[in-house]
Amino acid sequence: MAIIDLHDKPFDEATLAKLDIFEKYTQAWLPTFVMQSTPTICIFDLFAGTGYDLNGEPGSPIRILNVIKQYIGHIFTKRVNVRLYLNEFKQGKKRLLEQAVQQYLIENSDVARAISYKIFQQDFNQVYTELLPEIEKYPSLVFLDQNGIKFTNLKNLLALERTRQTDFLFFISSSHVRRFGSTKEFSNHLSIDMEALKSNPYRFIHEDVVKAISNQIPTGSALKLHPFSIKKGTNIHGLVFGAKHPRAVEKFLQIVWKHSPLNGQANFDINDDVVKPALQLDMFATEPKKNKIDKFKEQLESMLREFKTVTNRQIYLFTLEHGHPLSHATEHLKFLKNNAKKIHFEGVAPKINFKDAYKGECPVVIKWNGF
Questions:
Q1: Is pTM, for the whole model, over 0.85?
Q2: Angle of helix 13-34 versus helix 60-70 axis, rounded to 10
Q3: InterPro entries, alphabetically (predicted)?
């Protein structure tokens, strides 16, 4: 591959973390629609950068093209038209982005035949308004790696909420919200109770910002937002994932838990789990401290104890709502049945997955037998 020039410095660890999560989600998203022979699908990267960093590490536009390359055979067989929209506001970076994409497509002529693409050089709000009808019309994946909070206002978010088949990932500088959130510039973008925001420990700043944003989504909306905190030096920023379909949420949670097996919610030890393993006792506690997975098991048992009888669909949605991969629920349900003898369900497995929860012939009924 010919390296053209590129970012003025290498990507740091925080940038690589968000790029990895976006790439992995693109890998999960693309085949969903390709294998359904969806006629047209769209990917939008509206803060695209130059394509590569100083060391030739691929940025988001090249990672998108690499994912398309992975599924190129299916794209041709299923006759899917993939449309790629890139935007880079700075003229010099936009020129480098064009060169990077053109060179990639010269070296990968199969990808060139499979896609149509446009590269814009516009202010975000201008290009977003121009492309929104396309996002509304087709199944779309939107990636917004903004520097700051320019996208993050209620008008932009609600525009995505009204679309039918849009998954999105956007970056937000949450530390800046805490620092400057009371200023007019920030309050024009986000309506957040700054006093409440600052009352929680700083390490949860990104999660608190996402909760504040979620509270502004219309009641009854199917849109779910999930945060992933990213620490860079003393600053804590993060990604916000949004989707309406539970299967999309399931895939995202699988990706972030694989990326960060400790907690699935940050690229650092946000809950201090490393210093409090399951067997370590607090000086004044009589029971072992619990990590995030331990707490989820307790929450699951509490739900079962309260409702007595539930279905696999209820537990499927409960698990996603609490930000866990389905394996955490499945493993603990098996333990509660086979070892603790607290629950009963027919068969070997409780079938906590989308297909069985929504398309199975009959639900799996899980009954609480404990105390």
A1: yes
A2: 30
A3: Tcm_partner
Q: Which domain holds residue 297?
A: 292-368
What 3-state DSSP class applies to 360?
A: coil
Number of helical (H) and strand (E) elements in the chain, helices listed first: 16, 10
**Is 343:307 a contact under the CB 8 Å cutoff?**
no
Q: Are residues 246 and 329 in the same domain?
A: no
Same domain, 255 and 328: no
Percent of the chain's residues with pLDDT above 70: 90
CA distances from 225 to 4, 35, 65, 122, 213 (A): 37, 26, 26, 27, 9
Which of the listed residues 259, 281, 303 is the one where a domain comes to its end?
259
User: Residue 20, exposed/middle/buried by CB under 10 A (0-12, 13-18, 19+)?
Assistant: middle
Compute the C-alpha angle 272/275/280, nearest 5°: 120
HSE value, Cβ hemisphere, 13 Å, CA-based, for 106: 8
Same structural domain for residues 69 and 145?
yes
Q: What is the dihedral of CA 251, 253, 258, 264, to 10 degrees?
A: 170
Do 226 and 150 sit in the same domain of this protein? yes
Strand pairing report for 343-344 and 40-45: unpaired
pLDDT digits (tens, 9 = 90+) for 85-120: 999 999 999 999 999 999 999 999 999 999 999 999
